[in-house]
Amino acid sequence: MHARPRKPILLAAVAALTTVAPAGLVGRQATPVVAVRFAALVDGNGAVLQDAVVMVQGDRVVGVGSGSRSVPAGATVRDLRPLVGIPGLIDAHTHITYFWDGAPGTQPWAQHGRRRTAEAVFLAQESARRTLETGVTTIRDLGSREYGDLSMRDLIARGAMVGPRIFGSGYGLSKLRRPPEPGAPAWPRGRIADASEIEGAVAAQADAGADVIKMYGSTGSGADVTGVQTFTFEEMKAAVDAAHARGLRIAIHSYGPEGGRDAVRAGAESLEHAVDLDDATLAEMVRRGTVYVPTIDHNRYYAAHLEEFGYTAEQGRDLDAYRARNLETARRAVAAGVTFAMGSDAVFTGFGENTRELLWFVEAGMTPAQALATATVNGAALLGREHELGCVAPGCLADLVAVEGDPLSDVRVIVDGVRWVMKGGEVVVDRRRP
Fold it and tell me: Which residues does residue 170 pair with via DSSP β-bridges, in sequence order?
């Protein structure tokens, strides 16, 4: 049973919410105004506005107020009370083109390896829909073959496909573990034999239209939790510099602490997965503003689906043990003041469980408000879009989520209580009870 919304609260910070932009309304008269009413609105910083009204025009928020008097004359009213509003959520680590249809006799990784990218992009519409149902309206997709993530991004942006807003990376940069095969070079596809190819591999992703660069700085994926560093500090720094020279941010994957330490030192904007980070590395993350995306829940997902993936009981125990180290590292990072962003590392049937990561964040010591911030303001800042995403204020994209219960009392309200979702001014999910 979900927690009931608290008795009326107005925090001091709520003044920032009660802002109306009449000039914006006047300048956009051709587009109707929609007034969305919530029992309360909780922004990404935890400020609360009771009896909230959010004015939406086109794909943007043009005003926020409280009570019936703030509803503009002639506006279409969407009354969602007694539901509580929060900003559209951001999943900072996904692989949306990894799709498994569950056909008998198949396993996810094997099927993924055989599937053509065009087919994967089409089928992944189901994963996109399930993602929206969790309240996630924006994702950062970190690794896809043949730029399938960028194709999905563009199809969604033009309205040809329904799904979350995508910031894609194209091919992730990985170290070749054997001599390159004769023929076309592998580095345009992110597979790097030596440091001289790093700049070209980054340039290839940038030229293809990538929004962010991804580098695999260690082993580790699926049931493999080894975390052996694959790129040196100098190679990571070369990738960071090449990305920054093209105006792009970079996320570095490292399951282990050594690769995590070097990723931070090299200047990556975000560190993905890493466990057992020492106190000096955590302090350096705070100093640099490096965002930690621990993806704790994705190993829970693999362990929960051992049979589907063909993993052994021993591999399941290894996944559980790694997750425990991941959680302990997150707990220490919370205490140290490291900035987190919510990332699910969703693959295959993991879409639809995108926000379970918030449960681990609370277990690691965050308040529900801090956990909400990881999926809103922190995720938006990581994308460099803090003035458009993860916010509910004039000028922000009209990404709104209605939940049943009080998200500041129980984070499960965000995970399990999503009833209605608007993305860019369009209602994409409506699961309200009659």
Answer: none
pLDDT of residue 176: 86
Rounded to whole angstroms, the Cα distance separating 88 from 83 reads: 15
Give the whole-angstrom CA distance, residue 262 versus residue 235.
10
CATH code for the domain in which residue 111 is found: 3.20.20.140
Q: pLDDT tens across 309-368, in order?
A: 999 999 999 999 999 999 999 999 999 999 999 999 999 999 999 999 999 999 999 999
Please enumerate in sequence order all residues whose Cβ is within 8 A of that of 22, keeping only pairs 6 or more positions apart, or say none: 63
pLDDT exceeds 90 at position 224: yes
Is there a cis peptide before residue 82, judged by omega within 30 degrees of 0? yes
Contact (CB, 8 A) for 363 and 326: no
Q: Which residue has the tokens 């043990």?
A: 321
Can you read off the two tokens belonging to residue 84? 């509580």
Q: Are 52 and 64 spatial neighbours (Cβ–Cβ below 8 Å)?
A: yes
Report CA torsion sign: 130, 134, 138, 141: negative
Element (H, E) at 235: helix 233-245
Q: How many Å apart are CA 235 and CA 36, to the nearest integer?
A: 50
DSSP strand pairing (33-42 vs 76-79):
parallel
3-state secondary structure of 137: strand
Residue 30 forms part of a structural domain? yes
CA distances from 117 to 103, 107, 114, 148, 351 (A): 18, 17, 9, 6, 18
- Given a contact cutoff of 8 angstroms between Cβ atoms, the answer to whether 236 and 175 are in contact is no
What pLDDT does residue 198 have? 97
Is 384 buried (19+), middle (13-18) or exposed (0-12) by CB count in 10 A?
middle
Is the pTM higher than 0.90? The answer reads yes
In terms of phi and psi (left: phi > 0; alpha: psi -120 to 50; beta: otherwise), the region of 42 is: beta
- Per the CB < 8 A criterion, the answer to whether 150 and 208 are in contact is yes
Is residue 373 a part of any domain in this protein? Answer: yes
Residue 391 near residue 87, CB atoms below 8 Å? yes
Domain check: are 74 and 176 in the same one? no
Question: Does 233 lie in the same domain as 201?
Answer: yes
| Single-letter code of the amino acid located at 49 | L
Domain count, the chain: 2
Residue 5 belongs to some domain of the structure: no
Question: How many whole angstroms separate alpha carbon 141 and alpha carbon 150?
Answer: 9
Please check whether residue 420 lies inside any domain of the structure: yes
Q: Where in the sequence is the domain holding 63, given as residue range(s)?
A: 12-88+390-430
Q: Is there a contact between 215 and 175 (Cβ–Cβ < 8 Å)?
A: no
118 and 232 both lie in a single domain: yes
